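Two records follow; treat each independently.
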Amino acid sequence: MAIEFKLPQVAEGVETADVAELMVAEGDQIEAGQVVLEVETEKAVAEIECPHGGRVAKVHVSEGQTVRVGDVLLTIEEMATEEAAPAEAPPEPAQAPESPPAEPETVTTGAALTEIPTTEPAAVETATPPEAEQPAPGTSTAPAPAAETRQA
């Protein structure tokens, strides 16, 4: 089936463009998404990709020609389904799975649990749980008095 590829909208407000360079010729096989020509507007040069793959049956424009948005640029003969599908590559041999990425380290501080993602071992500062800071019943937290020394 023949497809007419027309000049798409190049930029907002641009209605015409000059064909700067043709990159295909009649008889060429092209792939969908291939750049087939460059056009030049007053402000820029743009590559035009054809969304269709197949054989270029006819080139309707020439370099230097001014074309309007919607003008036919190429007629493309689509490839048959068998031809269009690339040959399947043989399946890759099964490989041992790579080791999974390291899980974030979990650090427990006091009664709260905090996740700290790390990429390498690092020093971890821990807080003393509040119950560890309480003195045992019947004990004092005051510092012991300094020993007195007598002079003779």
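The next record belongs to a different protein.
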Amino acid sequence: MSSTGRVPDMQSIAALARAAVMQRRHCAIFLTAVLFKDSFAMTDRTSDATLVEQASAWPFASTLDRLTAAIEGAGLKVFARIDHAAGAKDAGLSMPPTVVLLYGSPKGGTPLMLAAPAAALDLPLRVLVRDDADGRTQVSFHPVVPMLMAAGVPEALAKRLEPAQALLLRAIQP
């Protein structure tokens, strides 16, 4: 019963429920913003701590071939090749050559995901290969140790994957 002594009808109950849900959503968004404001402010894609970007000595196609060969030569697997330029073309848009390779090894990644399940959001590893505005091929990736430590992986365990990124930089040198 309401304060007026009448039983509320279903329409009133539904309106109150919708208002409560919306209030919870706004509260959740506010709390998320307050709790994680420092994390969002620290995310800087150009920072050395969050992004490694190196110009390749080779043209785009050769760079992709060299990276794939280096990954597979180290006993790792290329799980996926995402061609963003092809996706853009399918959507009637254009962009310079841009491919992301997802690579790694279940033997290397599984222990990290067992130690910190959130690490699965960042594994397998990724490497971006793209042509920049000047036509140079750039290779980019997020450094594995800080990335995985942010997911809760102990530093010593995260460092085990550093060689999988070091091989990328060696592969694009003359």
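Discussion point: Confidence is low (pLDDT under 50) at residues 19-47. How would you locate this feature using only the token line?
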